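Example 3.2
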Amino acid sequence: MAAITLIEAVTQALAYEMTHDPSVVVLGEDVGVNGGVFRATAGLSARFGEWRVYDTPLDEMGIAGVTVGLAAQGMKPVAEAQFEGFIYPMMEQIVCHAARMRNRTRGRITCPAVWRAPWGGGIHAPEHHSEANEHLFTNVPGLRVVLPSSPARAYGLLLAAIRDPDPVIFFEPKRIYRQYKEEVPDDGEALPLDVCFVLRDGSDVTLVTWGAQVKECLEAADALAAEGVSVEVIDVATLTPLDFDTIAESVHKTGRCVIVHEAPKTAGFGAEIAARLAEECIYDLLAPVERVTAYDVHTPLYRLEMKQMPSTAQIVAAAKRTLAAS
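Structure, written as tokens:
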């Protein structure tokens, strides 16, 4: 079994589903002949043909609308937004139609569609190509928001997203597209949606994160472990519906929580987790909940880009503040 990158895991999952389910189709700008901006769909057009992997016009709203129509008529479309900043024109179709289809028809029609988008910063691109905007979708009933953090989770969660009968936003952290490899069996085994993954057990403080920031949180856990601090690391993976029970169980054990995300701080999804902790776990907390996030600015260009995102040192400092408070 060859080790593969996260982007290769996405391609592998798409190919598996297309091989085993003829209703799965892929559409988007340059996804066919060119294989996508990041080559997530490389080779799929030659393998499955232009009627199952087709290039669309440069029209994000049109792509989203066609995707809703295909899904409502029994297909399983996987649409690509070239970058997360290009998904805004798609929101009208996703929010007003895809997410409401099951409720609108009282369950007679569902919308088994997936919208994939490269997500987040760290590749020295302009701001529309470097946004962390998952929080714009987590407030939408009827819509799942999934953010994998490794090749194995990208493969298993994308399989689950395609098989889900309801619409899924599948954000792929492009900063770690090719950062490292791991062995991912191409066995068609999906990972569960709506479940947090506990990546590291600990007893002193809980780190809650998702996407590319998992890397920094694991580094912070290693740095704190060297100082005798036991850190639990939770990868949320599916932001909505949120598996809050796993987070609550961890905080019940550690009494401290640091939430880390790449999106701006104000009204980011970390605020929802912090609010739930205040409502449901207040008597378990030994210290105030900390949030380590991006600043409330648009992603700056190039030299300042990595300064915008949470660092390992910032996460370590936040964890130490929770320890010092009790």
